[in-house]
Structure formats: C-alpha cells, structure tokens
Design goal:
Elements: H1 2-24, H2 71-75
Amino acid sequence: MLFACAMVAVGLTVAGLSLVQLKASNPQMAQATQPLQSSPTPAPQNNEPAESKPGGERPTTPAPEPARPDMQAQKSGATPALPPAPAEKTAAPIQQK
C-alpha cells in the first residue's frame, strides 16, 4: 500500500513539474497550412433543371439481353452470355468409427 501511494505521489509530481515547465516556456506553434481566405461569392445563376416528362423511356445502347436465353432462343442458335456453372463437388459421407 505504501508503494502504491509513493507511485501516485511521484506521478503527480512529474505531472506538476511538466505543467510548470510548459507554462514557463513560450512555445511557438508552426502553422502547417495557409490560413483560409474567403472566396468571392459567385453570381446567382438562374439555371433551372430540365422539365421531366412522365412516362418517358430510357434509351439503352445496346439493348440489355438476359444472361441465359430461354429454351426456344437456345434452340434457334442463341448462345448464353455466361458459361455454365460448375457442378457442385460433394465428398463421400464420413464413416463412423
């Protein structure tokens, strides 16, 4: 218990001496960046957004196609955009000892 009290006293002493030393010195802080300057305010613009048309269509070029064509399209010669998925690998059941 005496040792703990001594450690606390030493810690408070070191902290106090550090604070006294900081107050006594005259530290000058270096400024890393230039001070902010206010930019001139831009003139107000009267640009209004374009008028939206309800029910309009979004053009897509080229037209989107499904990754897997239906069976009738595959019979007529359409090829899938993606290769076939690999088969799942399964192991033999674990043998009980």
